[in-house]
Amino acid sequence: MKIKHIILYSLIASGTLFVSSCRKFVEVDQYDKRTLKTTDDYLYLLNNKSNFESSYVLPLITSDNIAPEVALSASSAWGENYQRAYIWNAYFYVDNQQDVAWNNLYKQIYIANEILGGVMESQNGTTAQKLAVAAEARVHRAFAYYALANQYAPIYDPTKAEGQQGLPLLLTADLFQNLSRVSLARIYEQIITDLSTATENLSNYPTFNYHPSKIAAYALLSRVYLTMRNFEESGRYADLALALDPTVYNLEDYTKEVTFPRLIDDKEVLLSKVSAGYVLGPLNPELISLYREGDLRLKLFIGNDAGTYKGYKYMKPVFNSSGYTNNSYVGLSSPEILLNRAEVYARQNNSAQVVALLNLLRKKRFAADKYVALTAADVSGDLLQSVIDERRREFVGTDLRWYDMRRLTLDGSYFKPVSRTFNGQTYTLTASSPRLVYPINQEVLTLNPEIGQNPR
After folding, report:
1. For the whole prediction, is pTM greater than 0.90?
2. Using CA atoms, how far apart are residues 67 and 69, in angstroms rounded to an integer?
3. Hey, which residues does 35 pair with through a beta bridge?
4. Which residues are in the SusD-like N-terminal domain (predicted)?
5. Rounded to an integer, what distance in angstroms lies between the CA atom of residue 70 and that of residue 333?
């Protein structure tokens, strides 16, 4: 059996894990081989946030938050890969180019599998410590598989998921594995299993937000069940997360002299993940029109560029000097919990609860002298659309709009076809388009043909 290469680049990258930390990290058994032995060895893998924090970037480009027309001269700063993603091309990468997202996510799965495969038998740790390390690894693995499934696999349809083609499912760090795809239902089953198992051994809140916690696991379960259209379970896990009192900042506090918290100190961020690169606008004027006077998100989450892009651009948060100014946050956040719960209430036609949750968030997003509370009459025209619009305003510059677009194809008119003009040619993405699924990089398929390309 030949060695499989789906995580070839992960192994090359993760090779640095065994030499870059302090001497206590691992012990040398023989030349050119290092062995993870103690519970602390596995903990150090988790503590090295570079192993799990950097993720992907293309969902920011493929969503309808980007303007319907971008001049070739303006998009030249993106590079050809981003340009091809912008028009949902049949392929994104050429020659020997690597898909950073695919590599990053499978690298995270590999490291999580390494931890789960050995931590419970490790030395010098209590059972509680080992279970806590394993729980964090499960959350990271679940997040990675969810991200992969919502980029490289079909849109989850509960009536078809057993027959939908999913992804290679790797649950051990063994290189000799069958890389044929399992069903999409099996991928989501594993995500749910990992998260449900993890919650039993996680602290309510993280010591640092790049560590998984119970509130983050609940938030991710709510997101996953929303994608699976199991709205009752999505609401239940949102309630469990809300019971832990997640922080939502009053943005007006940061419009003057107060410095917005660095990413690592940001209490709204429940699980820190950042984009593997950055995208600068321009943003869709239709998105900008959703913001109302006094909405501070338009001032603080979005930049304005009078030069190259001549309009609004992604830059969230523009006031954060944490070193990730250009990279988007693509992890889990407190506002997502509120809006997941609001969407479930909207689907249950509970206008009172929808209004209450939207107001809870909006009051902290507007200048006090401009804030006007919503009433039931304000959302009566289309309860679900009012939540979708709020999600777009709140999650600008993140991956969530792309994920929402995909799942809303199963809700009829809530998905609107997206047209773009680029280099003199128009491209349209419809609800039935296979381009709602990203192509598998040819470099991966050359090494592992059994994975198979997605329909184009």
Report:
1. yes
2. 5
3. 27
4. 72-226
5. 30
